[in-house]
Amino acid sequence: MVKWKFLFQALDAIEFSNEFSLMMLLLFNDTKICMKINRTFLEPFMIERRVQQGCPLVLHIFLIIAKVFNIMIIKKTKIRDTRGIQLSIVHRQQIMA
């Protein structure tokens, strides 16, 4: 689980283009979806926690986060900080494959 804010900070930290970051922001920030049940569309609702199932960007998001964690681990080992990396578990956003 990763906060959206962390994802956007990660995109900036590993120097993705502003255009790509903006596209991700448009896709995942304040997004509404509508479900169809028995040939009837329900009222649209906000996606608050997850990426839609089957989203082709999930793999890429996972790789971006993995790269950032790798950078964080390398920095910690260079300064010989053996306490590890502090990760918050409060108010998380979930990215599911």
UniProtKB/TrEMBL annotation:
Q: Where are the transmembrane segments?
A: 57-74
**Top-level taxonomic group:** Eukaryota
Record's keyword terms, sorted: Membrane, Transmembrane, Transmembrane helix
Listed name of the protein? Reverse transcriptase domain-containing protein
The taxonomic lineage of its organism, from the top, reads: Eukaryota, Viridiplantae, Streptophyta, Embryophyta, Bryophyta
